[in-house]
Each structure stands twice: as structure tokens, then as C-alpha cells.
Amino acid sequence: MRTRQVNLLIALVAAMLFSFSCFCISRMTQTSNQLINCRKHILEFKENILRLKNKTERNRQELVKALNKMKYEITQRETLLADLVEKKVNTSDKNETVSNTFEVLKFFFPHLKRVGRIYPDVIIGKEKTGVSFALGISTVNRGNHSYLKQTLTSVISRMTLAEEKDSVVIVSIADSNEDYLKSVVDMITKKFKRQVKSGSLEVISIPAFFYPNMLHAKPPTEDSQKLKSWQIKQVLDICFLMLYAQPKAMYYLQLEDDIIAKKMYFTKITDFLHNITSNNWFYVEFSILGFIGKLFKSEDLIDFVRFFLMFYKDKPIDLLLGDIFQVKMCNTGETIEKCIERNKQIRIRYKSSLFQHAGIQSSLHGKEQYFKMYNEFGDNRSEFEASFLSIDATIWMNSKTLCYMKKSQMQKTVYYMILFV
How many other C-beta atoms are found inside a 10 Å radius of the C-beta of residue 369? Predict the structure, then answer.
């Protein structure tokens, strides 16, 4: 009986141990599964974290790129803004310089004191500056005759590209006729497209308010009065053109709208200037005709303009050019020979003329002119004289210039100027 109880107890303990073992095994299995699941979750979490990290890195790189792009754009805008401000300041300074240049006119013309800013109408041009040469051509309406196209063709086509780049040709329309202004602009924009595009050719128009009242009055009827008004206007036109050209270049060359330039004229001018040893000269003559072919240092132009404007009612501009040297260089009581010798040091003449006068119809309405200059005879004056032996003529000669004058059948005076240099 006792043994049976012990066996039953043992069996009960064994059953309990088995049940506990089964429970433990079941719990361990569940725990293992949970651990496996947890491990999976950890691995998934790790993968998610890695993906997030990679995505964050990509986002960071994209943000860095976007930030750098924004910085670049901001820098570009700041640079552009600075350039625009600087350009505006430079343009303002240039306009102020040019405007200040024209202020000299108010001293001589009281009616201009009521005008705010004196400046020409720039019809064509990029206001090119910083070049070596400015070539000024003043043009007016000559009715049915116009020589401007052939003049510009001659002047521009006989420059090299380098010379064209280092110069600016300024055509000043000194005429209130709107049709003439339009015809000049149309001709230049069609014929000289490249020069207009590069800024080497400019067209300006002198404002009507510039001229004093005497030139706005009813046109004179007498020939002497017409000539006087024409001479006065010519002086004023050239002065205005000089003031506009003064800030643009180192040198200023005065031309007219009815001339022909010799081949390589620009190269010859440049070479001649380089060979001048003294810097005390006032101007160089590249033509003996009137005011054509006179080259000035731009720094001296305002002084010339002041002198011309003091006496613009008294003499033509080519005679005023001679007077300024007489006033400046000739001392009271000295002989003319000494004065002339001193003038040669500051009035330099090129060996031969580089510009031929081509126009017959003068800018003075109703006047015709026949000026021709020859250099082909050289110093062989007898050859020239022999060529005119059969012509009824009056010949006058001095040491430098031989002039031939003849009345034609139509009562027109023909002047032949032959320069022997």
C-alpha cells in the first residue's frame, strides 16, 4: 500500500515535470519565435534606418546643390547689378563730361542759359570713346546735289580694319530739313551697316535752339548778307561738332562732306604723327584748302572753339584759324618773317594734300565752286606752265603755291590750286 502511494506520487511528479517541460519547451519555442520576429523587426528597422540615411544624404546633397546654385545666382545678380550701376555711373559721368564740354557755349550765347542740357540728337551711334582719331564731317542740304555718300565711301574704305576700330567718323547734320536728315540716315544705314553696327560711324543732328536768333530770322536777300550768314553758320556748325568729338579721341580731324581721301591717307597720317618729335604743335595740315584736313589734339579743341566763338561774326573759320596763331605767337613790334618762322614750329604741314575737294555745288545756295588740287607735277613747274600756254589765263606764283584763274564761257570763275611741296 505504501509502495503504491510512492509510485503514484512519483508518477504524479513525473507527469508534472513532463507538463512543466512541455510548458517550458512551448514557452521557449514562443520566445524563440518572438526573438526571431524581433530580430526580423530589428533588421527591417535597420534597413529602414539605412534607407532613411541614404535618402537623407541624397536630400542633403540636393540641398547643398540647390544652395550652391542659389549662391551662384545671387552672386551673378549682384555682379550684374554692380555692372549696371557702374555702367550707369560711367554713362552718367560721360554724359556729364560731354554736357560740361558744351557748357562753354552758354558764355557766348545768352539764349542758351535758359536751356537745361545742351547736347546733339544722336541719331545713329553707340557713342564710341577711347579711340585715337575722331573724324568730323558737317553736312547740309545742297538741293539736288549730294557728295556725302562718295565722301564717306572714300574716307571709310581707305582705312584698314584696325584703323577703323581705332577711330570714329562723326557725320553732323547741320540742317533743319527733315527730308534731308531722313535721306542721310537711310543712305548711311543701308550703305555702311557694318560701321554703324560697330560704332565706328555716328550720325548726330545739331538742335535748332543752338543757333542765335540772327540765323532764325528771315533769310537775307543780298548776296553779301547771304555769304555772311553762311560763314557764321559754318563756324558755329564746326564748333558744335568739335565739342561733341572732343571727349571721344586723342586727335580730331576736320573734313567736309564733298571731299575724296587719297589711298592710305589714314596710315600716312598715323605714321606722320608718330614721326613728329615735338609735342608743342597746335595742328597739322593735311590739306591747304580751307578748313579741310586740319588735325588737332583733342585737348586743345576747347581753346580753339573759344577763340572761334569770340569772332564768329567777323571772319570765316579758316581765316580765324590763322588769326589765333598771329595772336598767340606774334609779338608786338617783331617782323612778320620771325612770326612766320615761329608759326612753322606749331603749324606743321604735310608734304602733300591727302584730300581732294570734289564738290561743285557749294553748301551756300546758288554758288558753284571748282577747286582742284594737283600733286602729280611735283616740282616740275615748267611742265605745268606749258600745259596751259594755249589757255587765256592769268598765272600767279609764289614759293609754295601756283594758282590759275580763268573765266569760263558761262562766267564762272574756275580756280585751280596746284600745290608744290
Answer: 16
Helix then strand then coil, % of the chain, to nearest 5: 55, 20, 30
Report residue 241 CA to chain centroid gap: 14
CA dist 363 and 345 (Å) reads 33
Query: Comparing C-alpha atoms, which of 248, 323, 254 is closest to residue 295?
Result: 254
Q: What is the pTM of this model?
A: 0.66
Neighbours of 315 (CB within 10 A): 16
Half-sphere CA count of 369, side-chain side, radius 13 A? 17
How much is the average pLDDT of 285-293? 91
- Comparing 78 with 279, the larger pLDDT belongs to 279
CB atoms inside a 10 Å sphere around CB 205: 19
Contacts of 321 (CB under 8 A, 6+ apart): 283, 291, 294, 304
Residue whose C-alpha cell reads 563756324 in the numeric block: 235
Top-confidence range, 82-96, 139-153, 221-235: 139-153
Most confident of 55-59, 308-312, 381-385: 308-312
DSSP for 256-325? Answer: ETTEEEPTTHHHHHHHHHHH---S---EEES--STTTTEEEEGGGHHHHHHHHHHSTTTS-HHHHHHHHH
Q: Give the whole-angstrom CA distance, residue 55 versus residue 331.
A: 94
Tell me the pLDDT tens digit for each residue of 143-193: 777 889 999 999 999 999 999 999 999 999 998 889 999 999 999 999 999
Determine the Cα–Cα distance for residues 419 and 376; give it in Å rounded to an integer: 9
Residue type, 213: N
Residue 206 has pLDDT above 70, yes or no: yes
Burial code of 112-134, b = ≥16 C-beta within 10 A, e = fewer? beeeeebbbeebbbebbeebebb
